[in-house]
Each structure stands twice: as C-alpha cells, then as structure tokens.
Amino acid sequence: MLTQTLKGFRDFLPKEARKREYVKSTLKKVFSSYGFEPLETPALEYEEILAGKYGDEGDKLMYRFKDLGGRRVAMRYDQTVPLARVIAQYANDIPLPFKRYQIQNVWRAENTQKGRYREFLQVDIDTVGSSSPLADVEILDVVNKSFKELGISIKINFNSREVIFDQLKSIDIKEDFFLPAIRVLDKTEKVGWNAVLKELKKIEGLGNNNAMKIFGLRELTQAFEGPEMNIIWKKAADYNIPLEWRLTLARGLDYYTGIIFEVVSDNYKGGSLGGGGRYDDLIGMFSNQSIPAVGFSFGIDRIIEAMDEQSLFDGKDLGGTKVLVTNTAARSAQIANELRGKNIKVELYIDDKELDKQLRYADKKQIPFVLLVKDDKLQLKNMKSGQQKEVSLDQLPRELQ
Description:
- The protein is of the alpha+beta class.
- The chain has helices at about 15-35, 45-50, 55-60, 80-90, 135-150, 160-170, 180-185, 190, 195-200, 210-215, 225-240, 285, 300-310, 330-340, 355-365, 395-400, and strands spanning about 35-40, 45, 65, 70-75, 100-105, 120-130, 155-160, 245, 260-265, 275-280, 295-300, 325, 345-350, 370-375, 380, 390.
- About 35% of the residues lie in helices and about 20% in strands.
- Strands 1-5-6-11-10-9-7-8 form an eight-stranded mixed β-sheet.
- Strand 15 and strand 16 (about 390) form a beta hairpin.
C-alpha cells in the first residue's frame, strides 16, 4: 500500500492548516463587513452545467466521468459557474443584488508544478444582479482591504474585455478570433511578446498578417476610455485603491465581458495573488435572461507563500494551543477545565508519563507555555525563554498574553 497522496493533491498538517484557517478567517471578516454572505455548492455537478463555459483549456482540464447511475458528471472546476446555476435554480428565493462569498475546493487536471495543484482551495466574492460600476469598485475595495488586513502590499492591474474587443475591431480582426487571441495575449507577462507572436501565428485561420496586427497592439500606451471606466478610475482614486492599467492583462476564461483585474505584489515573484472581472452573460446561459455579475477569486496558496516569505505570520495568533497542562497531579484535569472557562486554549497531557516527555511533547508541538501542576503549587514555564515562575490561576490569563 502506498502511503502517499496522489500527484497534485496535498495533506495539510496542523502547522500549515492553522495558517490557512487564519487567512480564511481574516477574509471572512472583511467580506462580512461589506454585506457578503456565505454560499456552498456540491463538489459534483452535471457535466453539461460546467462543460463549454471555460474555453478549450478548461474543458481539457476538467475532471468528468460517469457515476454509478450512468449520469455524466464533473467535479467543480471553479465557483463562478456553480454560482450561475444557483442563481437560475433559486431565482425566486434570492434577492438581487446578491453578494456572496464561497470558500471551497476545486479540481483541475493540471500539469503539476510550483503553485499549481489538481485540488486547491478557492476563495471567491461576487456581486450578482447589478451592472453599476459601483459594484465593480466595491469588489476592488474589498480586495484591497483584504490584502491590507493580511499585511500584503499589492497593486491591482486592470483592463477591460470591451477595451480589448474594441482594440481588435479597430485593426479589423474578425470576432471569431477574439477569444483565441485573448487566451494567447493573457500569457504575455509570463512568456513575453515574441513568444506571444509565435502563438498567435498558430491560431488556425488567423493568418500571419493579422497576427502581426495584434502584435502591434503592444505599442499602445493607454486604454480607450468610456463612461464606466472613468467612474471606476475616479472612485478607485477616492478609495485609495492602487489601480494600474495593463494592456497585456486579458484573463484566459471565456466568460468575462467587461472590467478584468489581477492582484500582484512587488514583494512576491510567484505570480498573481488573485484575479477576477465582470461576466454579464454567463448567468443568462442558465436563466434565459440577462443578469450582470462581477467577482474576484483569491489565490490562497500563493497568498500563504507570500506571507511566509515576508514573515507575516510571525506574532499572529494562529489559533493553536496556548498552554499545555502537565499530567502530574490529581487536580490537572480540573485546572485545565478552569482555564478553558477563562477562554484559554488548553491541552491536557493525557498519558501518564514522566515530566521530561511531556515537555518534549510541548516543544515538538510548539506550544508556547507549559503549566507544571503540583499538589501544592503551579509553575508556568515559557518554552521559548526557558524561564519558569510560580503563578496562581487568577494570574494566568495575564501571564499568557
């Protein structure tokens, strides 16, 4: 029997799991403060719900199969398409605008590499039912506030699918080639313009001449303007949102229709920390009516990696055990319960072993304090400094801070 995970799938031991819980908890607090509510959807959907919504690459990477009942099903590839299905299915129960956050795993049959996994946690926020540019700005404001709370310095690169479409129309590119060209342009930051030109020339039917026209867009120095884009620019400045226009930002998923954005940090070189945009046509595919929407997805794995690199978890309360109570007296269990009543995170050592083993256990688990229980007194040991002092139960909450 192989005692290991499948390629692209991971275990998270307590040390790493606590970091993930800290990030999720921080983000939930920000989301809730803006009125976003939680939503959960199943891991499996009917295949037809998900297929054809993400483009050719998405369809290739989707896990899909027949279940035991012979139904064609697929595993959740992202959380945006399931959201669209929910809006259509519960149209009479959900008031619009609907502001939701969703924190669940998704599955993609990726070629695994650093930062790319086949199962990973996705954290999304979306506003459904409003075409107002203020909805876009609010999403950007939530994103900016979230990264501030985590301590990560960011900038938000943004563009617009409408702007890109206008650019392609202006150089007489047929609409049939818009999405294939966008998927290639989205790789520019990673591979460079010369590699993009080679990829453009490979698009069947586009032709070398049109590929060169698209390649010429690299000379543009500013985005086309429109009333909605101007409102977003102005409001973003009012809210101190660090927006920067980026010509090469295209976002590879097919369903985007308007503003698109990605978060990057000068202090992290591992790629974008999340991205999103406006998708006004996707939900209509399920509900037969036009329902606008805008959202953002946080890259949790990269966020945690960035925080590790910058030591941003240092000094944070990640929710672990604060004090180990030694099993060295008859009253040890009673004392542990009294401490829990004072909202202290306590672990009672449950085996009857010598004190040295109990201390080694606390050290291995990185529990910062050990309460040495004797019949007639209590001693608190700081595991980092090694200092030890006699205390009373009433003193402990203050001593443990």
